[in-house]
Amino acid sequence: MAEAVEGRRRAPEKVVHEADDGKEEQRRKLSEGSSAKAACEAQSGRQRARRPVEHVAARIGAPVDDALRFIDETKESFDVVIIDFPDPNNFSLGKLYTTKFYSMVKRHIAEGGVAVIQSTSPLFARKSFWCIDETVRAAGFATRPKHVWVPSFGEWGDVMASTSSMEPKRPLPEGLSFLSEKSMPALFSFPPDMDQVPSEVNRLNNQVLVHTYEDEWRRWN
Question: Terminus of the chain with fewer CB atoms < 10 Å: N or C?
């Protein structure tokens, strides 16, 4: 959750007008001013920490809600939906990777819109990755799975989903720091150790993805 960052309140600074022979008094007053300022900043920090998440979210226009409930109740349509849930390592999270959830998302994708779904690692959890892709397609989406090396994660993947064509736009915008015409094809090309494997569809009544994910990551833990 993004949080709003406010400027720190500054304590009134003490201005010292002392003669040269009053240096000790000057140091004392400066010290008092610094202490007051530090105390004020600490108090401001505690107030920000106590500020409810809902208050911050309201200021930036981000709803705080259960994902299933939000997507079920909202009347809005979206051009871009970025789904970045934690990996499906339990049944509470697993329900957010099911045909039920993706079908609900599909109802709120605008014409020509796209969803991007965090899909764990196609290298370390290959079956899980392709299970997510299979599940998204079973919900009625066309998909374009892709992968990239993320320094803090390693080889990681996501699934792009849409009800219409997802051909990359040309030309690419200028000034991009990573993506280029040369590097783009590699995002959608999977080497043999990450290539597609037969996968089941993850549904609310089987939660096959959670079991698959646990089995695959157990090898690395």
Answer: C
Are 209 and 135 a contacting pair, CB within 8 Å?
yes
Pairing of strands 142-150, 154-162: antiparallel
Query: How many domains does one find in the chain?
Result: 1
Q: For position 139, which CATH number holds? A: 3.40.50.150
pTM, to two decimals: 0.73
Per-residue pLDDT of the chain (221 residues; tens, 9 = 90+): 333 333 333 333 333 333 344 444 544 544 455 444 444 444 444 444 445 556 655 666 677 888 899 999 999 999 999 999 999 999 999 999 999 999 999 999 999 999 999 999 999 999 999 999 999 999 999 999 999 999 999 999 999 999 988 887 788 888 999 999 999 999 999 999 999 999 999 999 999 999 999 999 998 87
Closest CA to 80 of 113, 57, 48: 113
Query: Three-state DSSP class for 219?
Result: coil
- Residue 88's domain comprises 67-218
Annotated catalytic residue, options 20, 21, 84, 193: 84
Whether 84 is a known active-site residue: answer yes
Given strand 109-118, what is the order of strands in its sheet? 78-83, 109-118, 154-162, 142-150
DSSP state of 21: G
